[in-house]
Amino acid sequence: MSRFKRVLIVGGTHGNEWTGAYLMRSGTFDALTQYSFDVVTLLANPRAVAANLRYIGRDLNRSFDRQRLNNDRLSHYEDQQAREIAQRFGADGDDPVDVIIDLHTTTADMGSTLILDDESPQALQLAAYLCAVDPSVKVYSTSRSGRRDGLRTIAPLGICIEVGPVVPGTLDAAAFGQTRSLVMQVLEFLDRVNQAEQSECATPLTLYRHLETIDYPRNQAGQPTAMIHPQLQRQNYQPLHPGDPIFIDFAGNMMAYAGAETVYPIFINEVAYYEKGIAFVLTQRQQVDCYGPTA
Amino acid sequence: MSRFKRVLIVGGTHGNEWTGAYLMRSGTFDALTQYSFDVVTLLANPRAVAANLRYIGRDLNRSFDRQRLNNDRLSHYEDQQAREIAQRFGADGDDPVDVIIDLHTTTADMGSTLILDDESPQALQLAAYLCAVDPSVKVYSTSRSGRRDGLRTIAPLGICIEVGPVVPGTLDAAAFGQTRSLVMQVLEFLDRVNQAEQSECATPLTLYRHLETIDYPRNQAGQPTAMIHPQLQRQNYQPLHPGDPIFIDFAGNMMAYAGAETVYPIFINEVAYYEKGIAFVLTQRQQVDCYGPTA
User: Fold this and answer.
1) What is the rounded distance in angstroms from the CA atom of residue B193 to the CA atom of residue B125?
2) Which stretches of chain B drop beneath a pLDDT of 50?
3) Are B142 and B53 in contact, with CB atoms under 8 Å apart?
């Protein structure tokens, strides 16, 4: 297992997600010197933070695919910002990092989620460690989503910490504390890996693997013609069975889930996903075994 | 008691509060002909609704004080909109209404709140009626706040229905249904008044009377330096005693309520009030007796 030399903690990738932005502003992770690696921090989208908007021109956390990064003519603020960040912290950058921990919040009632883009042994071991320390942590694997455009993808090990529900443009002390704790646990894990303290015991790990996204029913103007059904609202990570209600229209008519198998919805009613055509994300709940440091 | 001839239901006064906007868009209150009065509806801030913003230039629901309305030189979109609405539905307007029901949502976990600007016998009787039908309804009286700049102030009887928590820019089926039910109950009450069906029995009514607003601690740049304390978050309408925690800063230090008496905070952590310098609103809980129609 590789040794970690530099770890980057990122907040404010989305400018209206204040948890990460204020963790950066308050210097919570500055001057951490007790680890076997350097910790650096970044407020990723300062202009969007100042404007209290998710983004200025385009979503920064959808701006890191390799084609975009290599295209100097793209002129959104976030394109420039993405190139700068990649040129500084990416593998070929001036100041490359081994790990990125990107801090996000969601309006969905998801509690604490660790998002993994791949299911490498190291990523799974980190996940198992966090779940052992705090069994309420959920692990969402996007390895089958096809998406590789997030800020965290420029590091060999990139993870996202997603805490909700939090209203964009607000501070939530519980989410702030949960996020800080999770970051400290990730740092602790990385340090144990560096110290080769990991044991060889197998840990069962529950993964919520990306399956597909479901959009709202919409009219020709693109406006939703139905709402998340009250029985689905707030039921992130709970089983959704074929025939269960998913939407209710303004006249009270129910629409049912038409899939063939039981799935586990997440990001239910996330505000920022209306414009992306996502009412919720369907996942499969699967158990894997992995080996790594014990909590 | 006066007879009601025209009742105006308003949504989209704040363009990102979708409950009211979609109740208007969906025509839920159109073609209501069963009452002893006419029902008319209004999407109050269509440009803000289209832009999914609370407002374009300034808060429409702070744009109805008489000096502003009489000043033709004020040129914000909302100033023009306020003048048009007042000239149409106000007492001296082309199409005056006797009652305005303005539909709002809050990010605070307040459930269903009826906001009254004055404590006239009629307003209190309406409140007592709604509370009798649904005991979870709370009544917030702003009569002592000094504010008379809301859209609803242009009608002899103006009320606000405020439901939360709802994230701006999202649809919430429960809030949608609650709001629709409350509107129907208000219409039912007004109809009973017109039909002179009210009994003379006294109803005890709990009022939460406006006392003052409390802002976040802030730095010189105006940024909050502390968050709502987790023990206060979501505790709308619950007693706050002298010495109880109200804020926690980013290092974990607690700040306590320094008032001399027990109060009842509402609008705790409402997103739109950060810019207004309001972390929460303090109220006094008081019992009054009023006479009116029984449920």
Assistant:
1) 10
2) 1
3) no
Query: Touching check for A236 and chain B: CB below 8 Å?
Result: no
Interface contact flag, A167 B169, Cβ < 8 Å:
no
The answer, for A178 touching chain B at a CB cutoff of 8 Å, is: no
Integer-rounded Cα radius of gyration of chain A: 19
What token pair was written down for B159? Answer: 């009320």
Residue A223 with chain B: CB contacts under 8 Å: 25
Query: Residue A230 is nearest to which of B23, B174, B271, comparing CB atoms?
Result: B174
Task: Please report where in the chains the tokens 């307003």 appear, as a residue.
Answer: B123
Chain B residues whose CB is inside 8 A of the A233 CB are: 172-174
What does the alpha-carbon distance between residue B81 and residue B44 come to, in Å, rounded to a whole number?
8
Radius of gyration of chain B (CA): 19
- Residue A61's identity, in one-letter code, is N
pLDDT tens for residues A121-168?
899 999 999 999 999 999 999 998 888 999 999 999 999 999 999 999
Q: Do B172 and A251 touch (CB under 8 A)?
A: no
Query: For residues A236 and A268, what is the distance between their CA atoms, to the nearest angstrom?
Result: 6
Provide the token pair at B76.
Answer: 């914000």
**Token match 């906007």: residue?**
B21
Give B70's contacts (C-beta < 8 A, 6+ positions apart): none
